[in-house]
Specification:
Layout lengths: L7 E3 L4 E2 L5 E8 L16 E7 L5 E4 L2 E2 L5 E5 L5 E9 L7 E9 L14 E2 L5 E5 L6 E11 L2 E2 L11 E6 L8 E3 L7 E8 L3 E11 L2 E11 L7
Parallel strand pairs: 2-9
Antiparallel strand pairs: 1-3, 3-7, 4-5, 4-8, 6-7, 8-9, 10-11, 11-12, 12-13, 12-16, 14-17, 15-16, 17-18
Length: 229
């Protein structure tokens, strides 16, 4: 369990049946017990991101906080394997932080996915293209453009921005800090991201259009500054 400034996640359950929706409860615990309150980030007090450790699956959930401070959510781990839950949260007395908790879906693990770099995703009948290069150790500007049947699509605001992006490094699951930017043109979803070191990263972009949230996933390589032109 990663602890950020003395904070950690605590949960009694970490083992699940693949594909079965389960009510999962957990606590955010700091030096003084459960925080009394949280600062809102991207329109929510807490964001729960759950990935299989090979980064082949992704879900982004918004648990409910009970009166006793315990968080509860309906969680499904789609296939057998090891998973990591990331909690993005900003307790009232601490910096914003990302806490991790290991989960497992029991059963025979069929395969671990290896990803090749890919800058185009086609969720449903959309085409999403990623523009920009990511340089390790520096702030990098990336932009996504969404089209449908060749026409630009302008996403609706989602969590206070044009879209929501999660970036996680393949292998050690380093979780990146990503900041939405103001769009300069219709159909553009820009972000500033910081990749601390070279390697492959999986990017999960969520955007809202016609009342539904779509997820587009990409694989990019963060390059050494010297090899960047």
């Amino acid at each position: 369990m990663d602890a950020a400034a003395g904070y950690s996640l605590r949960a009694r359950d970490w083992s699940f049946t693949p594909g079965e929706e389960t009510t999962w409860s957990f606590d955010v615990v700091g030096p003084g017990g459960r925080p009394r309150s949280y600062r809102v980030q991207h329109e929510r007090e807490l964001h729960l991101i759950v990935v299989r450790d090979d980064l082949s699956t992704f879900s982004h959930l918004h648990p409910q906080r009970g009166q006793n401070g315990t968080w509860t959510v309906q969680l499904s781990l789609p296939v057998a394997g090891s998973y990591t839950a990331f909690v993005d949260v900003a307790p009232d007395d601490a910096e914003a932080m990302t806490l991790r908790f290991p989960l497992t879906a029991d059963g025979e693990v069929l395969e671990v996915t290896a990803f090749a770099p890919s800058k185009i995703a086609t969720p449903d009948d959309y085409r999403v293209e990623l523009f920009g290069d990511v340089v390790a150790g520096d702030s990098s500007h990336v932009e996504f453009r969404v089209t449908q049947d060749g026409e630009d699509v302008e996403p609706q605001p989602y969590l206070g921005a044009a879209g929501h992006l999660v970036a996680i490094r393949v292998g050690d699951l380093d979780y990146l800090h990503v900041h939405p930017m103001d769009a300069s043109r219709a159909g553009s979803i820009p972000f500033m991201m910081h990749a601390p070191s070279p390697g492959l990263y999986r990017l999960f972009l969520q955007f809202l259009h016609e009342g539904a949230v779509r997820t587009a996933d990409f694989t990019i390589e963060a390059v050494q500054p010297s090899s960047h032109h």
